[in-house]
């Protein structure tokens, strides 16, 4: 099972939207994932326990060794599919 | 008719926990969400409310007595508990008039878009609660639904205009084009930050100061981790309450629990609202096909900026000190220390990351929040109790860094609950005046950009 960390400003609002969309997409593609939400401030202390970091908005704040995907398109709806495909490509 | 009335009364008597699923299901149906999905949304939100109630109970029963003891021991009169914006959002969504207000906000947005009075398409239904709470509090005080609606519509107009005007900052400083941030918890600071930034730039000497802190995260990072902050603050407050060591430790762990559990409960609200929010997005985007918009997003998308984080990490501990020293303040900052990043995000953007100005202006913003929070705590507490949030049994007060603690929201609330004949015209003149000035500035900016491009 792949572990995904979804981070946004307060770990509540936009990360819930993104997390739910990722879960749906992964279910549709038969990929088993566990998605955890957190605040951007917590990313550095948590990232090493995950396979992929997805952030809403720009994340330029720190050193993480795992792949990072910016997912603002999942909020605006513009370019949503290509972002979801990018996320999937990191999970295969 | 009698039966209808009885059913209605029974539901009202049952309180928010029953009212919420019903309201949300109805709103969902109106947006053409399927009934099973709409009902599941409603129930999820009802569960969120129950969860928030539990956690607030834990917060109150632990922190309340300790705060009282702290007042007695040291005269630090911080007896209004900051229960956080999540609890306030829960209160907002439980209001009997929330349904009307949501549609009024959406209608205001659509009408302004049609009239080209705004470019912001705001379908971030979740953050409508910042605009709705002002109307709900006005309704609670005045018992007038029209006044409540008017207050919310004014909040909506201010929100969309401030979003339009700050969109260039979002594009230039945060590098996110085509987006604006109709999140009042972030926008509100700009009405303090914009004039203050101008003023600080005019003062010789001050306007040259800037400093960098490279390792803010290394040394202050724990202020960014809610569980650590809860533990440490709980411990400090326990010590100031002169508790025995065992109780100090237990207060610390309980407060760490509150800091982690409040967001978890609040995210149930978000989860429940998402299908409705998505349906509203589809609905409005189809309506305005081909028009270029700024898409309104939660300000969460910009608070990951390193300068915002550094500023918040410095402002958070200073805000706690300031709370104890600021004359007139009674709010004990706690749950909303976790979202100070939102309150300083646009401050950072307008100074282009000048850390000296950020900290000064950030503190002015949080100071204003504390004072407005103190002033409106009695109304907020009475409102929260009336919808069934289990808090005011012992007569103590609650507040937050959201609702009418925000400077803009406070001013609108004041205007609608003072002498209306005087205060409403003043409010309208200020809004209209700002609008005219800002339109001129935007035009000038557009001209400069056009020249630069040639």
Automatic annotation (TrEMBL), chain A:
Domain PTS EIIB type-2: 2-92
Gene3D superfamilies: 3.40.50.2300
Single Gene Ontology BP annotation: phosphoenolpyruvate-dependent sugar phosphotransferase system
One example GO MF annotation: protein-N(PI)-phosphohistidine-sugar phosphotransferase activity
Transferase listed as a keyword: yes
A Pfam family matched in the record: PTS_IIB
Keywords: Transferase
Superkingdom of origin organism: Bacteria
The protein's name: PTS system galactitol-specific IIB component
Originating organism: Mobilisporobacter senegalensis
UniProtKB/TrEMBL annotation, chain B:
GO cellular component, one term: plasma membrane
Residue ranges occupied by any PTS EIIC type-2 domain in the UniProt entry: 8-440
Superkingdom of origin: Bacteria
Molecular function per GO: galactitol transmembrane transporter activity
Bilayer-crossing regions: 12-31, 43-63, 83-115, 136-160, 180-200, 220-241, 253-273, 293-326, 332-351, 363-385, 391-413, 420-438
UniProt-listed GO biological process terms: phosphoenolpyruvate-dependent sugar phosphotransferase system
Key words, A-Z: Cell membrane, Membrane, Phosphotransferase system, Sugar transport, Transmembrane, Transmembrane helix, Transport
Record localization: Cell membrane
Protein name according to UniProt: PTS system galactitol-specific IIC component
UniProt organism field: Mobilisporobacter senegalensis
């Amino acid at each position: 099972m792949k572990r995904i960390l979804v981070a946004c400003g307060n770990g509540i609002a936009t990360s819930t939207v993104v997390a739910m969309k990722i879960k749906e997409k992964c279910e549709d593609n038969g990929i088993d994932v566990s998605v955890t939400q957190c605040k951007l401030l917590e990313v550095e202390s948590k990232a090493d326990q995950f396979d992929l970091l997805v952030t809403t908005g720009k994340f330029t704040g720190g050193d993480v060794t795992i792949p990072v995907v910016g997912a603002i398109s999942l909020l605006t709806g513009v370019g949503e599919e290509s972002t979801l495909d990018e996320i999937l490509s990191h999970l295969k | 008719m009698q039966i209808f009335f009885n059913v209605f009364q029974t539901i009202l008597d049952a309180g928010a926990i029953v009212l919420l699923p019903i309201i949300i299901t109805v709103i969902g149906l109106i947006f053409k969400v399927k009934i099973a999905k709409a009902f599941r949304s409603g129930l999820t939100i009802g569960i969120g409310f129950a969860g928030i109630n539990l956690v607030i109970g834990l917060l109150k029963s632990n922190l309340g007595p300790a705060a009282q003891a702290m007042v007695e021991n040291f005269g630090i009169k911080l007896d209004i508990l900051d229960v956080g914006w999540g609890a306030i959002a829960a209160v907002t969504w439980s209001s009997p008039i929330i349904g009307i207000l949501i549609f009024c906000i959406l209608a205001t947005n659509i009408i302004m878009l049609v009239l080209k009075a705004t470019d912001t398409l705001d379908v971030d239904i979740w953050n409508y609660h910042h605009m709705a709470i002002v109307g709900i509090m006005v309704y609670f005080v005045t018992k007038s639904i029209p006044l409540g609606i008017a207050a919310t519509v004014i909040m909506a107009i201010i929100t969309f205009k401030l979003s339009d005007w700050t969109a260039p900052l979002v594009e230039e400083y945060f590098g996110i084009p085509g987006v604006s941030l109709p999140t009042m918890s972030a926008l509100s600071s700009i009405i303090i930050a914009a004039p203050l930034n101008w003023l600080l730039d005019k003062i010789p000497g001050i306007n040259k100061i800037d400093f960098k802190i490279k390792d803010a995260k290394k040394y202050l990072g724990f202020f960014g981790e809610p569980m650590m902050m809860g533990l440490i603050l709980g411990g400090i407050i326990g010590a100031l309450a002169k508790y025995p060591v065992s109780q100090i430790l237990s207060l610390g762990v309980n407060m760490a629990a509150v800091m982690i559990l409040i967001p978890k409960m609040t995210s149930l609200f978000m989860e429940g609202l998402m299908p409705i929010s998505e349906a509203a997005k589809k609905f409005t985007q189809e309506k305005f096909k081909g028009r270029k918009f700024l898409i309104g997003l939660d300000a969460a998308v910009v608070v990951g900026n390193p300068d915002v984080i550094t500023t918040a990490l410095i402002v958070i501990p200073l805000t706690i000190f300031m709370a104890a020293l600021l004359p007139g303040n009674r709010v004990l900052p706690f749950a909303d220390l976790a979202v100070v990043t939102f309150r300083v995000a646009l401050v950072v953007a307008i100074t282009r990351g000048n850390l000296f100005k950020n900290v000064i202006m950030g503190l002015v913003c949080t100071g204003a929040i504390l004072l407005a929070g103190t002033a409106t705590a009695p109304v907020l507490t009475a409102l929260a109790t009336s919808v069934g949030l289990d808090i005011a049994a012992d007569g103590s007060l609650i507040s937050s860094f959201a609702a009418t603690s925000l400077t803009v929201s406070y001013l609108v609330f004041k205007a609608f609950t003072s002498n209306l004949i005087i205060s409403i015209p003043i409010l309208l003149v200020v809004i209209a005046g700002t609008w005219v000035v800002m339109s001129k500035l935007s035009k000038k900016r557009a001209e400069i950009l056009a020249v630069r491009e040639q």
